[in-house]
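The instructor's notes for this session suggest beginning with a concrete chain rather than abstract definitions. Hand out the sequence below and ask the class to guess, before any prediction is shown, which regions might be ordered.
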Amino acid sequence: MSGDVPEGARMGRRVFLSGLAAGATAALLPVSHAVARPASDDLRIQRLAWAGIRLQLPGSTLFIDPLTNTAEWGRALPDVLVPVEGGVGDTTVLLTHVHSDHFDAGAVAQALRNGGSLIYPEGTHPLPIPGGARARPARLWEPQLLGDFTATPVPASDGYGDTQASWVVSAAGRRIFHGGDTMWHGHWWKIGRQLGPFDVAFLPINGAKFGWRKPVSGQPGVLTPEQAIAAATVLGARLLVPIHYGISGVDEYQEVDDPLGALVRVARGTAIDVQSVQPGAWVTWR
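After discussion, reveal the predicted structure:
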């Protein structure tokens, strides 16, 4: 039958089938090999207090672990507690876990006072839920479509063994990693292969040792500066913004000495660019 088909039609069919094959191949490629939308300056990211950040697009707002409760750390934390009001468009709050320095119910209620979504790792139960907010758990590796953001919870390891996730967020052609207060674990390579590389990784750096759980282990329950650089390297992060550091004067919570200075020293000679962003300030794209 092919001999009866005009040459132009055969050429068109070959082009059509080639296009289908190329599309199927692209669908099977890892994220890092897919054709990405060019990065733009539409996405702005503000560092909040402690481990919190705000991601802002012209029509959508996303908060991760916002903290505004002055009683949580008191004078032990010198960070400015940045207000989280003023969300633009569709507003969402993501939680890495439900410890009170990452799930501040008051901050969540403030962020979602005009409605929006609270998304948290499956297996956790944040309470209270703000009135008018939509709340739902998210299963690891399952993308969440949130306004103009796509957010995917990925494995993390909590220093107490409680359920925790890190978040990968894509928007405006950029990929963001937020590590909550995770410690070192073996999932970094898979996350980097499947969802990296990243324009910026927000990683904890204080290497805190806890005295509240007995017997005391003497081991860090949060990434140390050295481990944060290692994690950023494995993730393929171009930029590392340190979070979750600065506590002093708490006997049962001991940070490594000068975590920010140690991070900068360890980063020397690596491909990781460290940008220290004070609470309230915005990340500078480089």
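Then share the key points. Residues 7-28 form the longest helix (22 residues). The two ends are 58 Å apart (CA to CA).
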